[in-house]
């Protein structure tokens, strides 16, 4: 039995080593991806329910691996967060997308076009984040109030006092804050009222079920009501059908995002979408 135990330990140890090795390889691969320009920013429009206008775009990271092809952010962002690589990667996304949106504002005479960028916990925690963002805005000439940083509930859940201070430092430079995937975390309503947040993004899991599941419909209604009362904009994520869009419209949701309106696209392809002004 002792020997068997030893073997079993050996087995686990090998397995652990190979996992550690794989992670190490992926980490160095991610580092190289940034250096070699394998990352690309895609953009997905955020559309006004009232008139179908594109109000802004969300920057979504893509990794084009020379052998594997496109790798989804859900496959590498968790490791990038753990290793801290998300900080240089996130700064790169910020610079590229701010510059791009500023260019579109001029090109399409849409000076108020907004940009939404996802911020990870590792970035949010950094003391120099407000200065970094202020620098990017200055360099790219994007108006601060047109940059909205998307934070998930978990990002702001740590030390509430500290989170509030950080959010105030960010809003002091003029940028806007949104809570991403709203409804899936544990952010208390008290904090929601206290924090300087301008928008709530209803998580896709609720939008998807809105026609089929009464509970999801109730939650979406409640989030929209909450947003109206707290003076926040509401964006429904993951809209995939006309039926969902009509329902959200009836519930007075003001902004929508999803495959039904437009998929995330590379910069070159989004120009056509930017010129269109009506809902499908
Ligand atoms: P997220 O911020 O919640 O972004 C929305 C995700 O839903 C995107 O996945 C988008 O492509 C997808 N989506 C949009 N509309 C629909 C729809 O109608 N149906 C369905 N099924 N999906 C839809 P994506 O691009 O794979 O990104 C996944 C997550 O990776 C993002 O979730 C975000 O948390 C993270 N991420 C992406 N880019 C960045 C980045 O630059 N920095 C950080 N920190 N995280 C990022
Ligand atoms: Ca997001
Ligand atoms: Ca989301
Ligand atoms: Ca998400």
TrEMBL record:
Gene3D superfamilies to which the protein is assigned, alphabetical: EAL domain
Residue ranges annotated as transmembrane are none
GO terms (molecular function) for this protein are: cyclic-guanylate-specific phosphodiesterase activity
Q: Which residues form a coiled coil?
A: none
Query: Where in the numbering of this chain does the EAL domain appear?
Result: 23-278
Superkingdom per UniProt: Bacteria
Name-wise, this protein is EAL domain, c-di-GMP-specific phosphodiesterase class I (Or its enzymatically inactive variant)
Q: Which organism is it from?
A: Arboricoccus pini
């Amino acid at each position: 039995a002792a020997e068997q135990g030893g073997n079993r330990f050996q087995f686990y140890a090998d397995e652990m080593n190979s996992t550690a090795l794989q992670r190490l390889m992926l980490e160095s691969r991610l580092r190289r991806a940034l250096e070699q320009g394998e990352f690309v920013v895609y953009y997905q429009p955020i559309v006004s329910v009232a008139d179908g206008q594109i109000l802004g775009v969300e920057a979504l990271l893509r990794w084009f691996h020379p052998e594997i092809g496109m790798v989804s952010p859900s496959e590498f962002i968790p490791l990038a967060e753990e290793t801290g690589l998300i900080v240089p990667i996130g700064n790169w996304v910020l610079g590229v997308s701010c510059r791009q949106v500023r260019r579109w504002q001029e090109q399409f005479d849409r000076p108020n076009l907004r940009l939404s960028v996802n911020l990870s916990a590792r970035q949010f925690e950094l003391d120099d984040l407000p200065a970094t963002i202020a620098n990017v805005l200055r360099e790219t000439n994007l108006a601060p109030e047109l940059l909205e940083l998307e934070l998930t509930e978990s990002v702001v859940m740590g030390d509430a006092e500290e989170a509030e201070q950080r959010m105030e430092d960010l809003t002091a430079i003029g940028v806007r804050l949104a809570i991403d995937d709203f409804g899936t975390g544990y952010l208390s309503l008290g904090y929601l009222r206290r924090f300087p947040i301008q928008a709530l993004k209803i998580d896709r899991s609720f939008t998807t079920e809105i026609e089929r599941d009464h509970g999801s419909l109730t939650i979406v209604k409640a989030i929209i009501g909450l947003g109206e009362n707290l003076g926040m904009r509401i964006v429904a994520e993951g809209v995939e059908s006309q039926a969902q869009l009509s329902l959200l419209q009836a519930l007075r949701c003001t902004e929508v995002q999803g495959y039904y309106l437009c998929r995330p696209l590379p910069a070159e392809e989004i120009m056509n979408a930017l010129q269109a002004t009506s809902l499908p």
